[in-house]
Design a protein that fits this description.
Radius of gyration: 23 Å
Structural class: mainly alpha
Largest sheet: none
Strand content: under 5%
Mean pLDDT: 80
Number of domains: 1
Number of helices: 7
Order of helices and strands: HHHHHHH
Length: 169
């Protein structure tokens, strides 16, 4: 009886471990493709959802302020869409270079590639920042102080996490 339970447990554990390795993204399986990196977000192209923003700001859709908020966010998103589509060839080029670098396995060129990406994305990032500042100035006119704090909190929640780099000793 004990041997049967023990053998069933070992079989289930072995199957689970094998299945888990095959399904784990970036795990032990070779040839698994990483998800493409979003260089638009790296360049500061972060869109906002008007309905979600209204919920976070606790503004009713029938309120006059809601219309101004929706129009401001939709205008902002349209401007970012045009910025992203205008710079899509740059994003595609960077993506292709990173993919070929990863496939070649020659990571000695990574530092130079990062610097090149930083230089290419810098003007795009500045333009996105300017568009964001325009949105913030519109929101400052439309929202009261309490709502403006909530707006800033909402914006911060939408920014992609910029992880801390490990310090090498």
């Amino acid at each position: 009886m004990k041997n049967t339970v023990l053998s069933i447990f070992l079989i289930v554990f072995a199957l689970g471990a094998t299945y888990g390795q095959e399904r784990r993204p970036g795990g032990f399986g070779q040839g698994q493709e990483r998800a493409p990196r979003n260089f638009g977000a790296s360049a500061g192209i972060i869109k906002y959802d008007a309905d979600e923003a209204l919920k976070k700001l606790k503004i009713e859709e029938e309120d006059e302020v809601a219309i101004d908020v929706i129009v401001s966010i939709e205008t902002y998103n349209i401007r970012l869409d045009s910025l992203q589509s205008a710079n899509q060839p740059i994003f595609n080029d960077i993506q292709a270079k990173f993919r070929s670098l990863r496939q070649s396995g020659d990571f000695s060129q990574m530092r130079g590639m990062r610097e090149e990406v930083r230089q290419k994305l810098s003007p795009i990032r500045e333009e996105a920042k300017k568009i964001g500042e325009d949105l913030d100035s519109e929101m400052a006119v439309v929202l009261d102080e309490k709502q403006l704090k909530k707006w800033n909190s909402y914006k911060a929640s939408k920014r992609p996490y910029q992880g801390q780099r490990r310090q090498r000793n």
